[in-house]
Amino acid sequence: MLSSRTSASLLSARKALARRFSSSSNEEAASAGGSLIAGVAATFGTYMLADFLSNFIQHPTQKMDYGFLNQFIDRPVDKPFWGTRTQHIVGVAACLAVADHGYQAAFAKYLGRPLCFAKSPAAFVFHTFAFIFSGVLVYCAGDAALNPAHEGRRMEELKSGAYCTYIGTNTAWFEPYVPLAVARVAGQGIANTWFGSALFPATLAYSTVKGVGWYDWGDSGLNDLEMKLNGLAKEE
Question: Rounded to two decimals, what is the model's pTM?
């Protein structure tokens, strides 16, 4: 039989080992959580910039309404946030970033490896459609529910937003192929950069989703202040 001293030593060793494994697991979980937050934040920033840049593709000669930010670019402020490009830039990017990483995690769990276009092109294209549709739809739902301008017709606004989201999302099928085109035109080195693999594809996708889904091109799709800034008469 083990002596009481030996038993106590073994028990102490087991507790220390358990604490070590518990600490290691907690550190790994904290590290994974930190990496996820950092990834979502980076994607959020990329999508905000992509939305901003897409306005120059959709409205190359028009002045945009950025709400409270207008005061810094010598433009009048009508509404500080709701109904402005800034609302869209921040809101859509937040919803898309969360949806993008959420779907990637789900596909990785299903496939048993990280989602990759080269290894799973069909799944990646489906992921692209799914996260854009769901992310933009969540944004439209939030806008319909919270935007003061939609008071009294919130359900109609949600239905309209859902339809436009579906139409627009169907145009974004090309996004996963953009880095391949960049590689063919500018070389693999450029395609592997943040610009070639993330920002440029997202900017083009924003342009087609907004442009086709909401007919947001040229002098179309402008709010009241933008119509005024560009010397256009508001359609009755």
Answer: 0.86
